[in-house]
Amino acid sequence: MEEYKRRCGELVRRLNEASEAYYNGREEIMSNYEWDALFDELAALEEETGYILPESPTQNTGYEENNGDREPHEFPALSLAKTKQVAELQKWAEDKKVWLSWKLDGLTLVLTYDGGKLAKIVTRGNGTVGTNITYLKNSIKGFPLRIKYKGHMVVRGEAVISYTDFELINDTIEDDDEKYANPRNLASGTLSLDDPEKVKERCVRFHAFTLVYREEDIRSWGERMDFLEKEGFTVVEREELTAGELPAAIDAWTRKVESKAMDLPVDGLVICYDDTEYASSGSVTGHHATKAGYAFKWQDVSAESELLYVEWSCAASTISPVAVFEPVQLEGTTVSRASLCNISEMERLGIGKQCTLEVIKANKIIPKCIAVKKAEGTFEIPDKCPVCGAQTQIRTSPKSKTKTLHCTNPDCTAKHVKKFTRFVSKSGMDIDGLSIQTMLKFMNEGFIKEFADIYHLAEHAGVIREMEGFGEKSCENMMRAIEKSRQVHPVNFIYALCIPMLGIDAGKKIIAKSGFEGFLERLDNKQGFEDIDGIGPEKSRSAMEWYEDDKNQSSLKALLGEVTIEKVDITPDAEGKCAGLTFVITGDVHYYKNRDEFKAYVEAAGGKVTGSVTSRTNYLVNNNDQSTSSKNRKARELGVPIITEDQFVDQFGE
């Protein structure tokens, strides 16, 4: 018995340490695969011996975050019972109508509304007490700040970051201590930030998965979700089923994850009863309510394969190892590569020059090496950067003690991938199919060293078609997008050059005043741009310093040999509906696609858009005209009219 107790204590300690890191957005201690295996072992031991420690994760619903003001939940946010057997779900469903939905892998939030307004946002925390993060209400998408329903209402949902945004954000974080292991880790870390603007940049979206309470109750879960959708919430995807239909439906939903058609991180599926009154009639056992819902987690399938070699790939400032192994079948797909993260992880796993790897697909998506067998020899760490050939350097993080490999060349192309992202963006050259990940692949292959090289990627088309993630069609689409971008608007071209402090607005002012030829002449003859209204000495000096760098001049000259600059007239309409008026636009918009489109219309109609409210502002446009934000307060102090977007369209629209 003492041996059982010792093992239980060890499992509780290890699981709680992993949970503490998991819930607080820090570096991942163990994978979900490892955590589930240890949790199942602990649960089996507890059932066999009856020995249960009070701090056991089988008895707790979450883990307390370390930051922010703590606040008790009005309704406890309990965990769901979990199973890996479809038959158990069918048995639980009985003869009742049930709903199937995703078990999203993010951070659970609880939203409270009173009088038609969002009153507070609280994280799940330990299920009883969470952290108040209402200050982030304008930084998270997926829920309305105002609703038509005026009674007391509580909504629960998951805040997630898509795989696409996760990869985009992570690849541009240069500090290794700031990188995140997965989208869930990033979402958790993001919502612990104090800066709402930084949170907003990271594209966190709330997906409502249940209406916890409404004064005028709705008994059907399906109708509750329809109600939330009509009120403006992003709601989890769902399907109404019977017990007999569950196996086929679960198989179909699983295939969707395996085919990567699902961009949101999920770690299983959830079924719940449509009859919410029946669902609330269950008892609470351990850390979950017996009828509140049932979570289905996929059986983790592993495969063994022989390591062929370790590929080192440079991204931002870090050179990361990737295991390349004999192809194996996992979850219906062929897998031959898995990230090894860093040198410390390779050492932890015991990677050898030759070894057998055990590999899984974490959450059915990301190939991950979880164990090593039959290791022989030691792995080699390259002394040259794969992109630029400069010396490499091993660095140990003072915070996490993680060892990572870095390129010592400050001008390495891979360190400036953010500039290439801006170059191909919609505001720049508008080239579809060139994500950060794709460009980093091309940089590591030596295809891209400067902007103009993008227009020579066709020379490598044969190799690109054979690269992982590509094929004939995707390669053709990318080449077509590159060719299309050869005709470019001068303002977009200036933006794409990545001249510090010169964005779209400055580009418009320069082209309106001088045209594109004038822009080049001003750079060549060192005239600068100070005389152009809205540019000023600081922006002008920044542009001239950029041009004084021979590398930038060479890059510009090479680009001009690849593209044609369109001849345009962007003189504002002196008789337009916004002529002579200055607007400030704040908050979300709905009539225009986004604020950039809104701004473009104002400028085309002869108006001006600025970022702050002053005595020269004619109108502040804010759909939340009752907001107590600093801009609204300033407008009221100065007597500047505050109008909604609809009022703007009525008064100044086409």
Description:
The strands form 7 sheets. Strands 14, 15, 16, 17, 18, 19 and 20 form a 7-stranded antiparallel beta sheet that branches. A 5-stranded mixed beta sheet has the order 2-13-10-3-9. The chain starts with a helix and ends with a helix. Helices cover 34% and strands 23% of the residues. With 654 residues, the chain is α+β, with helices and mostly antiparallel strands. Strand 15 (318-330) and strand 16 (333-339) form a beta hairpin. The chain folds into 6 domains: 2-49; 70-296, 2-Layer Sandwich (D-amino Acid Aminotransferase, Chain A, domain 1); 303-385, OB fold (Dihydrolipoamide Acetyltransferase, E2P), CATH 2.40.50.140; 413-485, 5' to 3' exonuclease, C-terminal subdomain (DNA polymerase, domain 1), CATH 1.10.150; 490-565, DNA polymerase, domain 1; 582-652, Rossmann fold (3-Layer(aba) Sandwich), CATH 3.40.50. It is globular. Helix 1 (2-23) runs antiparallel to helix 2 (32-49). The protein is built from 21 helices and 26 strands.
